[in-house]
Amino acid sequence: MHQPERSGVDLKSFVLPDIGQLQETGDTWEPYRLLDPAGEVVEPVAVYFRDLLASDKPPSTLRSYGHDLLRWWRFLWTFDIEWDRAISVDARDFLLWMKLADKPVRAHWRHRGEPGGEPPPARAGKAGIPNPVTGKPSSSPKYAASTRAHCETVLRAFYGFHLDAGSDHLLVNPFPLDRSRGRSRPHAHHNPDLPFAPVRSGRYRPAVPKRPPRRIPDDKYADVFAGLRSDRDRALLAFWASTGARAEELLTARETDADAGQQVIGVVRKGTREYQQLPASPDAFVWLRLAQEAGWSKGVPRGRGEPLWWTLRRPWRPLNYHAARAMFTRANDLLGSNWTLHDLRHTAAYRMANDPEMNLLHVQQILGHRRLTTTQIYTEPSEDEVIAAGLAHHARRSTRPPVQAALPAPDYNPDSLSVLFGSDPA
What we know:
mainly alpha; two-stranded antiparallel ribbon; 5 strands; about 5% strand
């Protein structure tokens, strides 16, 4: 059925307004809530969040989904569209805007509403230029394909939930499936003897390029480590690069989780939320002990149930992900690099997977991968190793004597060869 275009939608000049908010409550029954510009709870999102909690989704999933829903609601509020009256044209325009427009640049939350608290100027320069130190593309002012794909998936699932629940007035899912699929289930008639082929799910879902994991080479890792300013930061880096734990998994550890005698540290895994002890390097525990002694002498709370990682200044607060990322960003700035905290997990994975004495199944268990195929990507050569091998190949060829052109045997008649090949072989 053809749906009419909406009038008054100018995507070229549209700027997503900073209205509404995703509020963290600290309440286990309602960890996050989406508020409209008047401060009222957006009830359809609240119902969806309750369903996610009942489906055993962690609060971090609600936070991730909530940002996508807030972005969509801001779009609806701007053009005065009721959430249950949105059509596929609205979804198309929204995802087209995400593809072509620059991301909104906000002022820091501490300075919003203050004089001079305007957003910084728009970022200039070409996006995607490789960093000269790491080789990773620079940050783009536009939404990444993975961000757009995640947003499309979340919104399609949100409307699918309300359609199944029989919400009033909602007739269609504005984020439709791909036309080639119709209403069929993906892989409905799949041959179990054949691998699964990728299936395009959403009509407006972008193609996400495959990104190989990036590790930090040992020499560059030493440079990053030398740029850190405290024993706490050195301990964090040593644990991340030796255990393969995700950044937030390590930051939730408590004092009782660090067992220097057994050389293990316990973390709660992101996906399963199971408690797991991970082996760590000896130097990580040395740096941890130095950091603890320095903190305890200044008055940092101490106790087996206390958080393991704290801020360096009063008032003492448990170290969160954003503060840890800011610490790592400062170390990156000294080198002109753009590695991330997650690259430390990739670094640990590469080190373990390429150790000939290390069983790949053990690496899988340490990293917490559900499938062995996910772990096997770390056995493939990294991009810097491929480039180094290619350069070495060209260097070896440059030292060889030039190859002389082969001349025809003297028994052949040059005139016959000229007729056969169209040119004089000599």
